[in-house]
């Protein structure tokens, strides 16, 4: 059963996903997940007790998610990078964050892209940012990841899964710190890269956590705890 | 849409204001208003500091009310609704029966989530000012915020029947259609935009991307033309368009069977073929099953075969000439850009460009 697959997400991938979403609060954002699939039995089969380790995330777009050319280009570049990297990582999933705060459903676009990725990696998972959990992040003590996992069933399509764990238990507290330090400004996605190619995407091979991200802005802002909640109204302010 | 120079100026002012130079706040806020960018956190923070400082506020003169409005909207964007309410109250005292302040009230109710009350406010304002575009747009925004995309599309279509010169609205409609995966309708919106502003590179780019997404040989050919137009209008600086041209060539290198099948579909009613019904029937065969079967049927009829082959050769040779030149130029520009700005990423690019070079 697909439900027996275990998904584990590294701190690096997890933090990147959330920071990407926070950098572009007015838009939906997406990206691919890169990782390893290990497990007993046939790797190509959906069934069996596979373990999917999500090692890194590649932030892709924050504008015009639904158009194809740049998505194809991005996926081919990610694949080229993974082949050259020789760490035997694959594109193991896709992540998406919806535009509106109270939108907790996986959109048709996310499902389509997830289907495409699942053709190459049947155990691929889709992560959807959960704004409620993100809002409660600042209250501390929350060990659950702030993303929902969706897994693919050949019969019923994408369904909410439960087997997602954080590899490092300190991920949420580090994430809170990074949010208060506004480190999302240091993150560039593929859209930013296409806008100015000197903005390089963070396609990084596995390694220690990115402590080398330097704070470029020392401006101190009051510690904002429920960022997504506080900025939720952005979602409703369109057409201004 | 903001130009590079203007954005640089805005970032410079923002850094100075962040760094403590309060005297630049007014200039920063006015540039944000002019460029219509959405930097709500900064605007709310610095704008509020400006309004709370009596000396700075008095220097603004009458502009202070515009700043109140700007800060109110920015505060609503950051969910600081108390701050927003204070600004709106101040504005209401100064301008008691104003349409603009009424609009702000409606927006505040939207922020709170009181949709029906906001609706009532807008309706009552529309009774007085039926042609206020902002009120119509707020109704579209409300529908979108509540997740009612089809309602938003309907309202926006109705708005555009009256205000068809509103480019931002056409763009918003295109984005709504894209999020609903209705690409053909989104392409129509971009067509309107291109007709209205044929020299705007970004509209050509958006249209090209939509054509690519919709697919089909005709559309891909058209997409390539629009990508080329974008390159021309942007002076060769638009990386997406350069990539777009290169990607097209890879798609043109389809297997022969599919190529012919697609051609047949696109030349549906233009067969150099005596029997039109034959053409139609074989088209249906091609649509239903693989292109190869369609081709065989056609060739079996003999008369069409030679004509099709001839057409194929002609279009192929035209394509090849065009493709070679544009693609090699685009590849060269991309390589140069990457070498100068992001040399580490050049290895990712090389396989794609090689494939494109060999395909053309």
Automatic annotation (TrEMBL), chain A:
Q: Name one Pfam family in it.
A: UPF0172
> Which residues, by range, are in coiled-coil regions?
none
Supply the InterPro entries for this chain.
Answer: EMC8/9 (IPR005366), MPN (IPR037518)
Q: Where is the MPN domain?
A: 7-151
The superkingdom of the source organism is: Eukaryota
One term under GO cellular component = EMC complex
Q: Which family does it belong to?
A: Belongs to the EMC8/EMC9 family.
In terms of PANTHER family, this protein maps to: ER MEMBRANE PROTEIN COMPLEX, ER MEMBRANE PROTEIN COMPLEX SUBUNIT 8_9 HOMOLOG
* Full protein name: MPN domain-containing protein
Species the sequence originates in: Marchantia polymorpha subsp. ruderalis
Automatic annotation (TrEMBL), chain B:
Localization in the cell: Endoplasmic reticulum membrane
**Xref: InterPro entries:** EMC2-like, TPR-like_helical_dom_sf, TPR_EMC2
Q: Give start and end of each EMC2 TPR-like domain.
A: 100-210
**What are its GO cellular component terms?**
EMC complex
- Major localization listed first in the record, in broad terms: endoplasmic reticulum
Record membrane topology: Peripheral membrane protein
Its keywords, alphabetically, are: Endoplasmic reticulum, Membrane, Repeat, TPR repeat
The record describes the protein's role as: Part of the endoplasmic reticulum membrane protein complex (EMC) that enables the energy-independent insertion into endoplasmic reticulum membranes of newly synthesized membrane proteins.
Q: How does it assemble?
A: Component of the ER membrane protein complex (EMC).
Q: Which family, according to the similarity comment?
A: Belongs to the EMC2 family.
Q: What is this protein called?
A: ER membrane protein complex subunit 2
